[in-house]
Design goal:
Layout lengths: L3 E7 L13 E6 L2 E5 L5 H8 L8 E3 L5 H4 L2 H10 L6 E4 L5 H8 L10 E3 L6 E5 L4 E6 L7 E6 L3 E4 L1 H6 L5 H9 L1 E2 L2 E2 L4 E4 L3 E5 L6 H7 L4 E5 L7 H7 L4 H11 L3 E5 L9 H9 L5 E4 L5 E3 L5
Parallel strand pairs: 3-4, 4-5, 5-6, 14-15, 15-16, 16-17
Antiparallel strand pairs: 1-2, 1-18, 2-3, 7-8, 8-9, 9-14, 10-13, 11-12
């Protein structure tokens, strides 16, 4: 059975707290696992969350600040220690290649795994698979930063009443799906478009075109809300979003499930992030992330 869920490994911003580890997020997308922004301590958080190195197929780093990347060394070495049998691809800003290489070879270890580096240097598609297209968009932060977006191809939903009207049943349903027509009846006549799911991961950034493009029409948007609205000036100075800004972006983009994360250690009341996102107009499903939670991707429309 296919599983699509977000496993939250860490939710702190620059400084971890007693209750929040540095960043780390695993997206399970059917049979693949995509690890986003493995900050310090990610390997241990994976153990606590029941995530194995064998679950990983891609690593996507938004930028090279420590809270988003210092866990790379441990994760990469664990992948090799466990001798993961399949290829793993790492995406990261091309300007940070030297940081990735330093983390990849931070200490001596035996390389046993094929780890492919696919740096990002422009907006656009990074990978196209039968299950999804992975895209990147540039964000606005003091260092080069990219957000990531996953788009499932559109499919078709069969309509029982139209199939019945044309006398199509049993094995013939599968045949018309495979061949596109049957006895003069086209697939379009007995089905409708089933929109593919969309997921976006937006970390450290000010408001910019990239944020809106990544969020557009998403079933799930994981987005930083480092600051509360009363600290909007600080957020802009340091290249971050507030909870209200994140909520407004999600509402305008038609997001179905908003996941707020990457919280500054200055705040101790998580409910205020939800309150401010709601006050900004967001009406969909909303989760204020905490470490080790699992958040299902909404079912297809």
């Amino acid at each position: 059975m296919s599983v699509r869920e977000l496993v939250v490994l860490g939710t702190a911003s620059q400084v971890p707290t007693r209750h929040r580890n540095h960043n780390g997020y695993l997206l399970r997308w059917d049979g693949e696992g995509i690890l986003f922004d493995p900050g310090e301590g990610t390997q241990r958080q994976m153990l606590r969350a029941g995530v194995a190195a064998h679950d990983l197929h891609r690593i996507c780093v938004t930028h090279f600040h420590g809270d988003h990347s210092l866990g790379l060394a441990g994760v990469i070495q664990r992948i090799n220690l466990d001798q993961v049998p399949h290829r793993i691809t790492a995406h990261y800003p091309k300007s940070g290649r030297r940081f990735f290489e330093r983390l990849r070879y931070a200490t001596a270890y035996r390389e046993t795994v094929s780890l492919t580096e696919a740096p990002v240097d422009a907006d656009g598609p990074l990978a196209v698979t039968p299950a999804y297209t992975l895209q990147a968009r540039r964000l606005s932060h003091p260092v080069e930063s990219y957000g990531y977006r996953i788009i499932e191809p559109d499919g078709r939903r069969m309509l029982p009443e139209r199939l019945a009207a044309h006398g199509i049943e049993g094995p013939d349903v599968g045949r018309i799906q495979r061949e596109g027509s049957l006895g003069g009846v086209s697939l379009e006549e007995v089905s409708e478009v089933r929109r593919g799911q969309r997921f976006a991961f937006v970390m450290d950034t000010r408001l910019c075109d990239g944020v809106h493009a990544l969020a557009d029409g998403c079933d799930m948007l994981v987005i930083e809300s480092t600051f509360l609205d009363e600290d909007a000036r600080l957020a802009d100075e340091h290249g971050h979003l507030t909870a209200g800004q994140a909520g407004r972006v999600a509402e305008e983009a038609g997001v179905r499930h908003l996941v707020l994360t990457h919280f500054s250690q200055r705040y101790t009341e998580p409910d205020e992030f939800e309150r401010q996102a709601r006050a900004a107009g967001f009406q969909g499903e909303l989760t204020v992330a905490h470490d080790l939670m699992r958040v299902p991707v909404p079912k297809r429309r």
